[in-house]
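User: Hey, quick favor. My workstation is busy. Could you predict this chain's structure for me?
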Amino acid sequence: MKTLIEYIAKSLVDKPEEVEVKELEGEQTSVLELKVAKEDLGKVIGRQGRTARAMRTILGAASIRAKKRTVLEILE
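Assistant: No problem, here it is.
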């Protein structure tokens, strides 16, 4: 899951070297924290949050196959 979000984020931003994804694992749920450069934050979120919502949808579909709930948090 971490590599999936990292790949998508690096494809969207102007500074892919500043993309950082941390994974915090629990028993039932896993949280992915995505951090990008300040000027790239708008590209990751998208208009009215559409890009972020799409990333969360893809992550949800992938986590169903892994039988574990995964949540994406975009940090400033």
